[in-house]
Structure formats: C-alpha cells, structure tokens
Design goal:
By secondary structure, the chain is an alpha+beta fold. Helix content is 24%, strand content 41%.
Length: 51
C-alpha cells in the first residue's frame, strides 16, 4: 500500500503524528499539536455536553 501512496496518522492524547508515504518511502513527517483530548472537547462542545 505504501507504494501507491498512503497516510499514517497516530492520534495521541496531546498530539497527532502524520507520515505521508509515496513510492514506498516516507515523504513527510508532521506533528500537530492537537490530540484526542482536543477532539473530545470539540465534540462535547458541539453536542453541548461535558467531556
């Protein structure tokens, strides 16, 4: 699958790591400062419930 192009996403509590693969090799690695806790809080806010 990596040869076709793929994205690996690891969602942690505090951050998300993203690896972009193309032609069987990693082309880019990103760490985003948003994790599961922020996602949970945003969903709870949208539904007007407490996280």
């Amino acid at each position: 699958e990596k040869a076709k192009g793929a994205v690996y996403i690891d969602i942690g509590a505090e951050a998300c790591d993203v690896v972009l693969f193309r032609n069987g090799a990693a082309q880019a690695v990103l760490t985003l400062p948003y994790g599961g806790r922020i996602i949970d809080q945003d969903i709870a806010y949208g539904f007007k419930v407490s996280p």
